[in-house]
Amino acid sequence: MRKKIYVLDAAAVLHGFPIGEEKHEIVMSEKTMEEVISKKEILDLYLNIGKLKKAKPSDSCVKQVIDVAKETGDYAELTDADVDTIAIALTYLQLGNDVVLITDDYSIQNVANKLSIQYKPITTTGIKYEIKWVTYCPGCKSKYYDIDENIGICPKCGHTLSRKAVKKLKVK
Ligand SMILES: [Zn+2]
């Protein structure tokens, strides 16, 4: 049966996604649960009453997510928990479910978009973001955080470098 499933990343939990009020199925990766220690008690409660489920991605979906993230230049920005979260969404999607990934992370959104996974941000006021620019090489996938913008060529392979903005949640 086709089900509507919400997959939450760490930021979605930290921003207070209303798990208790949601009638659809909500899943998270085990690694994400380990990341949000400050919300452990509430997550354990939701797990116990069956409001929230721990999910595991398939190995092939993890591989697919990593391949796409490397292609888009987002791989270095993703934690293992992020990769698992996107891969879980992809796993459920491939099983024919209606999946929505809840995330405010640009890199996760970018990779999800490439994989045709629907996503929804949960931005509320008062959340602090840090925007940083990263210069990356589309040829050899090297990342340069401190490179002079005027150097347009990858020192490793000679490919033309690209730049993109990365927005990261800042938890004070
Ligand atoms: Zn290069």
Automatic annotation (TrEMBL):
<keyword id="KW-0540">Nuclease</keyword>
<dbReference type="GO" id="GO:0030688">
    <property type="term" value="C:preribosome, small subunit precursor"/>
</dbReference>
<keyword id="KW-0378">Hydrolase</keyword>
<dbReference type="Pfam" id="PF17146">
    <property type="entry name" value="PIN_6"/>
</dbReference>
<protein>
    <submittedName>
        <fullName>Ribonuclease VapC</fullName>
    </submittedName>
</protein>
<dbReference type="InterPro" id="IPR039907">
    <property type="entry name" value="NOB1"/>
</dbReference>
<feature type="domain" description="Ribonuclease PIN">
    <location>
        <begin position="7"/>
        <end position="90"/>
    </location>
</feature>
<keyword id="KW-0479">Metal-binding</keyword>
<dbReference type="GO" id="GO:0046872">
    <property type="term" value="F:metal ion binding"/>
</dbReference>
<dbReference type="GO" id="GO:0004521">
    <property type="term" value="F:RNA endonuclease activity"/>
</dbReference>
<dbReference type="GO" id="GO:0030490">
    <property type="term" value="P:maturation of SSU-rRNA"/>
</dbReference>
<dbReference type="InterPro" id="IPR033411">
    <property type="entry name" value="Ribonuclease_PIN"/>
</dbReference>
<dbReference type="GO" id="GO:0016787">
    <property type="term" value="F:hydrolase activity"/>
</dbReference>
